[in-house]
Write a structure and sequence with these properties.
Layout (H helix, E strand, L loop, with lengths): L1 E9 L9 H8 L3 H18 L10 E4 L9 H19 L6 E3 L2 E2 L12 H8 L4 E2 L2 H4 L3 E9 L3 H12 L6 E9 L8 H6 L10 H4 L8 H8 L3 H9 L3 H13 L9 H11 L8
Helix pairs in contact: 1-2, 2-3, 10-12, 11-12
């Protein structure tokens, strides 16, 4: 069994069912918005699916694939798990288990501005990996923030076929583009509705509920050098070190487009020539 569920269906380019500014903040690390989205998705899933289901198998939740730096969906997943676990415990069911889909390729392109074929071409050479034995006999919930063209879903289902997974599956989304006449770059409209420049990140980063993710790291590393330098000098040492560690963890030091900004970060952290590895 494979079932798909989305909390919000987008039929009109100006109406989403959720604030576009909030979605943009979520994509750039606002964990307070991730909490609201994850909780709402769990409550919708319970209301529309789980309360009617026979839950005779262990549930496992899997966030969208990532290598080292988690995605924005990972933050939403945390709060989805918190809310769903409360319901499962109240109903006498086992609480959720978690698994990870590992991915092998990183890229600098902005996925949200691509059309369907470009998206599939970009990620088509990627490889997703999961622990098949851990999932044996369980119902798997694959979680993502938004479904636009279904390219990531195709990759997930390709992985399911390659691993010969026989599990019952749920494919869950906070939102889904349900009108095929709307161009897929509506995703970028949402992604950047609040973040118009690197300086719009400051309220998110310096707020009380920031959680770093791949999007914000790539955005900062790919930004205009002069503006980037000004921005970085206004941030805390803790954030600068976190940014550098995350960039290295995802192998971004091997991407030429990020080299200049990463060089500035390195000099910022190690201001003398006596750089210690």
């Amino acid at each position: 069994m494979t079932s798909t569920y989305s909390l919000h269906k987008i039929f009109h380019p100006d109406s989403f069912g959720f604030p576009a500014d909030a979605y943009s903040r979520f994509k750039f690390g606002d964990d307070a918005v991730a909490a609201a989205f994850g909780t709402a998705l769990a409550e919708g899933f319970i209301r529309d699916h789980l309360r009617y289901a026979t839950l005779d198998k262990q549930l496992v939740v899997v966030s969208s694939p990532y290598a080292f730096i988690p995605t924005a969906t990972f933050a939403m997943k945390n709060h989805f798990v918190f809310r769903l676990n409360r319901w499962l415990a109240e109903m006498g069911y086992p609480i959720l288990q978690e698994a990870k889909v590992h991915r092998t390729i990183t890229y600098k392109e902005d996925y949200g501005e691509l059309n369907a074929s470009q998206r599939l071409n970009l990620i088509g050479n990627d490889a997703f990996h999961i622990d098949k034995s851990f999932l044996d006999g369980k119902t798997v919930i694959f979680l993502d923030d938004i479904r636009i063209t279904g390219s990531h879903e195709k990759m997930i289902l390709r992985m399911v076929d390659e691993y010969e997974l026989k599990n019952d599956l749920y494919l869950l989304y906070f939102a889904e583009l349900a009108n095929p006449s709307i161009h897929p770059n509506i995703e970028n409209y949402l992604n950047y509705h609040y973040v118009k420049s690197i300086f719009d990140l400051e309220k998110i980063i310096q707020g009380d509920s920031f959680m770093i993710n791949t999007r914000i790291v790539k955005y900062i590393l790919n930004y205009d050098y002069d503006s980037f330098c000004i921005f970085l000098q206004n941030q805390s040492d803790n954030f600068v070190n976190l940014l550098y560690n995350m960039a290295l963890g995802n192998g971004y030091h091997t991407i030429d487009a990020y080299a200049r900004n990463l060089g500035f970060i390195k000099r910022f952290i190690y201001p003398t020539n006596n750089i210690k590895a």
